[in-house]
Amino acid sequence: MTLQYGIIGPGAVGTTIAYELLRSLDTDQVHLFGKKAWKVPYRQRDTGEQSELQTQTLAHFDDTLDVLFIAVKTHQLDHVIEQMAHVIDDDTLIILAQNGHGQLEKIDYPHVYQAVVYISGQKTEEGVIHFRDRILQVQEDEFTSELAQHLADTRLELQLKDDIEVEIWYKLLVNLGINSVTAVGRQTAAILRVPEIRNLCRNLLEEGQRIAEAAGIVLPETIVEDIMKIYAGYPDEMGTSMYYDIISGAPLEVDAIQGFMYRKGQELGLYTPYLETVYSILAAAENGKLNYK
């Protein structure tokens, strides 16, 4: 069976998904959608592969997609939902490949899945560079199991999970520490060389762990140390999505990451001073109340 794949969002995540599909599938099966039609220069740092990927607009596409990956920033999701109705139907598998939590309920279709994304890259005016990983974690069911079979010959790793909510919270904590300090400090992962910043990361993770536990999410007892070890493996030059956004003046995903965690902590009656401080600073930056330039 030949499937039609669509990817909305020619950023680091969306372009990587499209590129990996195009390596193994026919070009007329894979459609990368953006705000305009243009060619995205793309390079993979780990393999040295280079390519140009053609984008098109949703408005000029008149077919029905079998699988749709939505890889836009959280603040762009509402606009995308308004634009995509004519390319999907009730049989379309919709994979929400975004950071954060709380967006899934906006999409009122039968087969919608929150993916936990482990694809690291950067989009600049010159194009997209992929740094590491090609992993999407989704809830396992008969539909995602069939999709995994279709993707078996690609380098995309569609990992099927028994309880995706645990994986979403785990990634939330990963993002909570490193995204916060790189955005507030306006530095790449090299900022973790500063002992006080490592301590701040640890405090943020400990507060996040308490929020998750109070919310009934069962995470490993060693999660703080586990994530700190992940951070230790990051190359100094690696940035986060929130770092790149704040440097370029783009909108932040603070509401879906730090904001979601803060609101959940408040709802559960928890005192989270480190999270409250970081969230307040980033929310003020998002609202234009601080001048970062």
From TrEMBL:
The entry's keywords: NADP, Oxidoreductase, Pantothenate biosynthesis
Keyword Cell inner membrane assigned: no
Superkingdom, taxonomy of origin: Bacteria
Family (UniProt): Belongs to the ketopantoate reductase family.
Record carries keyword Oxidoreductase: yes
Residue ranges annotated for the Ketopantoate reductase C-terminal domain, each copy included: 163-285
Ketopantoate reductase N-terminal domain sequence ranges: 6-133
One GO process term, biological-process aspect: pantothenate biosynthetic process
Reactions catalysed: 6-phospho-D-gluconate + NADP(+) = D-ribulose 5-phosphate + CO2 + NADPH; (R)-pantoate + NADP(+) = 2-dehydropantoate + NADPH + H(+)
InterPro entries membership: 6-PGluconate_DH-like_C_sf (IPR008927), 6PGD_dom2 (IPR013328), ApbA (IPR003710), Ketopantoate_reductase (IPR050838), KPA_reductase (IPR013752), KPR_N (IPR013332), NAD(P)-bd_dom_sf (IPR036291)
Higher taxonomy: Bacteria, Bacillati, Bacillota, Bacilli, Bacillales
Protein name: 2-dehydropantoate 2-reductase
GO cellular component assignments: cytoplasm
Pathway as given in its UniProt record: Cofactor biosynthesis; (R)-pantothenate biosynthesis; (R)-pantoate from 3-methyl-2-oxobutanoate: step 2/2
Gene Ontology terms, MF aspect: 2-dehydropantoate 2-reductase activity; NADP binding; phosphogluconate dehydrogenase (decarboxylating) activity
Role of this protein: Catalyzes the NADPH-dependent reduction of ketopantoate into pantoic acid.
EC numbers for this chain: 1.1.1.169
